[in-house]
Design a protein that fits this description.
Two copies of one chain form a homodimer.
Chain A lengths: L5 H19 L6 H8 L6 H4 L3 H24 L4 H18 L1 H19 L3 H19 L6 H20 L19
Helix pairs in contact in A: 1-2, 1-4, 1-6, 4-5, 4-6, 4-7, 5-6, 5-8, 6-7
Chain A binds a DNA duplex (30 and 30 nucleotides) through helix 3.
Chain lengths: ~180, ~180
DNA sequence: ATAGTTAGTGATTGAGCACTAACTTCAATT
DNA sequence: AATTGAAGTTAGTGCTCAATCACTAACTAT
């Protein structure tokens, strides 16, 4: 057993929770599964976070932040088609190296409706704000072209879905999806 | 209490389950919620279907079928750009009139990974087959152009995500997304 | 009328889950 | 060496939920 500071543990929990929630969504993931992955007892999670929702929220926010930073860094100093290729490359790298981060975000999107009907309006607001930040982050390097931005994000969402469905990378449904090529 | 034939009831269950699963996903939806929506007792669902999974599967398959038929009918007799506009219009109509059908499909995509890790390989296979059928259905009217097909589906997935997040139709994040206009 | 079938319910159960409370272990400080 | 505070555990509670079972009500054919 390795003892850690509470702050470090919280980080571990966020990472583990991202992996687990990405797979099972909010309701399909037990706190016990998260605790097991962290290597800590299940009740201890409730000392680090006020509840399961807070863990989900923390993981979701972290994923959005990471993704925004990823695009910002990839596009740094670039513009237009060059920026697009750089960001596309970063996305492809992310999907192969940390698919949990992107699946977690899909789970997050789908969790909005359920949360909203349970009276939690804040969650949806946070998710939408995150999306807008992501939008703006890629909008600028793409020459502030709304159509380009939307096309880029649309391809990203399609990739997320194909990955979620478990299509292997060389499957024919990936045809026509090459972010390193321009779309028009 | 309205008495129905078992077959009619099963239809009602599929409709109700679509609405409920679309909102809460597999694990976030109780069989009681479905039964309540149908207007029938919870145990009776298990007379009509062997289990909760079977209900989810039936609803998922129905949604895919309906969507494929929708595109096939919209594009009937049309080709290329005309077919694209017709199918895009049908999609927009569907998203405003039966968003559950599309949200259910998103839930279905995300359920694949979880099912696969629980040893259920068939479910993922069925989902992927459905996607390929959808792909082929829109591929032909679009002049068998893989890039066009992918772009069309990508826009669809983006729309699904924006709807899931609860963005109102006039929000700025919808900018650049107009299926009635060509994309290049 | 009666025998048989089909639609549907109420009560219940066993498992899993989020969360709590009380206790223990360990490392740094005095 | 004793103290203390933070890290972590064990034991337990109340609740939800899928699924089962025994039963009733309504329809149908003879």
């Amino acid at each position: 057993m390795v003892r850690m500071s509470a702050e470090e543990r919280r980080e571990s929990v966020i990472r583990a929770a991202t992996t687990e929630f990405a797979r099972g969504g909010y309701h399909g993931t037990s706190t016990e599964a998260i605790a097991r992955r962290v290597g800590v007892s299940q009740p201890y999670l409730f000392r680090l976070f006020p509840g399961k929702k807070a863990i989900f929220l923390a993981a979701a926010e972290r994923c959005v932040e990471d993704t925004i930073r990823m695009f910002a860094e990839a596009a740094e100093g670039l513009e237009g088609e060059e920026a697009r290729r750089a960001m596309g490359g970063a996305y492809v790298e992310a999907i192969s190296e940390q698919p949990e981060r992107l699946m977690m975000q899909m789970q997050m999107y789908l969790a909005v409706a359920a949360a909203e009907e349970e009276g939690d309006r804040e969650f949806g607001e946070a998710v939408r704000t995150g999306w807008m930040r992501l939008w703006d982050t890629i909008h600028l390097p793409l020459g502030a072209d709304a159509h380009e931005t939307t096309t880029f994000l649309a391809q990203g969402m399609l990739i997320n879905c194909l990955v979620a469905m478990g299509f292997p990378a060389d499957h024919r449904v990936w045809a026509g999806l090459d972010p390193s090529e321009p779309d028009s």
